[in-house]
């Protein structure tokens, strides 16, 4: 796939095409993605460092409020194993802005081998990004050998509904039907005191019931502090006992005291405008 190949010559009705042309005059290389027009997506620009022989193109699909990174690549047969570093960098780029990853293409690394160095490095790369390989049969069959070099890698949170290969001479086309699971939001159990239900008068009444005279008999500061802690805990246990709560919302550490105060100010200002409908309250 080179620049002189017109997109209209390889386009399919009802699909958009995103492509990356082979920058050299080699007869191999160049990659493209065909995306159904009913899907919302944006092109993700993947950097191609100098000296790399890997062709890559990527998009971010938006499905059910989830971002799915789809990367297509081609690695020439005789390219050095150092090009796996480019593949790792490409996956790192899309992993930062997506919920799931689908990476597919001709890797030219035989995943059927148990001893090949490239295969071991590829498995290590898959483990790094929690990816698994979908294709389970040979994709290149020769007279004396066969290999699995055309791969589909998906994130661990993706279900494989179906995968298959279609023979075309000595090279097989691969395909897969995937289902993207929505991550389950686990509830979180926590302990708390309902301090909002306590009035200042209740605290004063409870403190008045405590016999503070033993403090004057203590000679150790630690004993005095321990007495104070025990007395105050007794007061709070009566007025606001510890209860167990459950929340399914994910933690939001960025919501600190300052953010809560600003949110309260915004809510009060909005309520004031709703009551008065005055332009002065809106600004």
UniProtKB/TrEMBL annotation:
Q: Which InterPro entries match?
A: Endo/exonu/phosph_ase_sf (IPR036691)
Q: Top-down, what is the taxonomic lineage of the species of origin?
A: Eukaryota, Metazoa, Ecdysozoa, Arthropoda, Hexapoda
Protein name, as recorded: Endonuclease/exonuclease/phosphatase domain-containing protein
Give the source's domain of life in one word: Eukaryota
């Amino acid at each position: 796939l080179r620049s002189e190949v017109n997109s209209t010559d390889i386009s399919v009705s009802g699909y958009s095409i995103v492509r990356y042309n082979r920058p050299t005059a080699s007869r191999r290389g160049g990659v493209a993605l065909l995306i159904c027009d009913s899907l919302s997506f944006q092109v993700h620009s993947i950097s191609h460092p100098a000296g790399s022989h890997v062709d890559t193109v990527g998009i971010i699909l938006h499905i059910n409020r989830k971002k799915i990174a789809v990367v297509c690549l081609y690695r020439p047969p005789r390219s050095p194993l150092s090009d796996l570093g480019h593949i790792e960098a490409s996956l790192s780029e899309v992993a930062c802005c997506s919920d799931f990853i689908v990476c597919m293409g001709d890797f030219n690394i035989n995943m059927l081998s148990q001893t090949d160095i490239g295969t071991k490095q590829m498995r290590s790369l898959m483990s790094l990004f929690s990816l698994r390989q979908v294709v389970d049969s040979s994709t290149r069959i020769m007279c004396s050998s066969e290999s699995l070099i055309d791969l589909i890698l998906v994130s661990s949170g993706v279900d494989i509904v179906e995968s298959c290969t279609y023979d075309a001479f000595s090279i097989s086309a691969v395909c897969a039907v995937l289902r993207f699971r929505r991550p389950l939001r686990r509830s979180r159990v926590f302990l708390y005191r309902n301090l909002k239900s306590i009035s200042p008068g209740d605290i004063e009444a409870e403190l008045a019931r405590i016999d503070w005279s033993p403090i004057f008999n203590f000679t150790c500061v630690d004993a005095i502090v321990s007495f104070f802690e025990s007395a105050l805990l007794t007061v709070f246990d009566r007025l606001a006992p510890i209860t167990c709560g459950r929340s399914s919302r994910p933690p939001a550490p960025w919501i600190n005291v300052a953010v809560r105060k600003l949110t309260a100010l915004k809510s009060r200002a909005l309520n004031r405008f709703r009551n008065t409908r005055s332009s002065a309250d809106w600004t």
